[in-house]
Design goal:
With 214 residues, the chain is an alpha/beta fold. It is built from six helices and seven strands, in the order H-H-E-H-E-H-E-E-H-E-H-E-E. It has a single domain, classed as Rossmann fold, CATH 3.40.50.150. A seven-stranded mixed sheet has the order 3-2-1-4-5-7-6, sandwiched between helices. Helix 5 links the parallel strand 4 and strand 5. It starts with 13 loop residues before the first helix and ends with a strand.
């Protein structure tokens, strides 16, 4: 990664090292490929099934498509993302609509600076960007900011089906970092789809994971 493009205050992620650019660069010249200017249909389905309880952490929130939708449903939302440009856009959108949503620049691999706990976490499109080592760190980071019994919903690109999205993961790769940590229970991993600006239905997984109460 060019020195001038190094992310501030944290080491670059595996994706940033591979791409040679910080995540913020994805937002500087217009919408990122995953910005669809509305909530993911999979998130809408979860919300309509009453799968979220506030406060909600939107991990890897981007410009706030999903977090703002949940806030509009009456849920208090905190979003976190490493991309400064995306967070600025999300906060502006929240203010324009008078929603109870706050978006902050931060690292999902170390969520301690948030200084609070959540009843639900939404990860839409973040998990699959991490390598195996980062996923273990991320799962431990999540455990430190959720209440006992809290639920994590992960939507990520799948390796099953035609035309997989970038960084597709297998069911086993998705389950492994949670299954190897006694603080978590993998409740379900089901086939889903994710929309991008270039595809209406990229194959994906929808995982539900629960924090142990003990």
């Amino acid at each position: 990664m060019p020195a001038g493009e190094a992310p501030r205050g944290r080491p670059p992620t595996s994706h940033e090292r591979q791409s040679g650019q910080p995540w913020d660069a994805s937002y500087r010249d217009g919408p990122a490929p995953w910005d669809i200017d509305e909530p993911q249909p999979a998130v809408v389905r979860l919300a309509e099934a009453e799968a979220f309880a506030g406060p909600v952490l939107d991990a890897g929130c981007g410009t706030g498509d999903n977090g703002l939708y949940l806030a509009a449903r009456g849920l208090p939302v905190v979003g976190i993302d490493v991309a400064e440009t995306a967070v600025a856009i999300a906060n502006r959108r929240a203010a324009d609509h008078g929603l109870d949503a706050t978006f902050t620049v931060g690292d999902a691999l170390d969520l301690r600076p948030l200084g609070r706990q959540f009843r639900t976490v939404l990860d839409c499109g973040l998990f699959h960007t991490f390598d195996a080592t980062e996923r273990r760190v991320y799962v431990a980071s999540l455990a430190g900011v959720v209440e006992p019994g809290a639920t994590v919903h992960i939507l990520c690109f799948s390796d099953v089906g035609p035309a997989p999205g970038p960084h597709p993961v297998s069911r086993a790769e998705l389950a492994q970092p949670f299954a190897s940590d006694a603080r978590w229970q993998v409740v379900a991993i089901e086939p889903e789809t994710l929309r991008t600006r270039f595809s209406d239905a990229s194959p994906a997984w929808s995982a539900t994971v629960r924090r142990a109460r003990g």
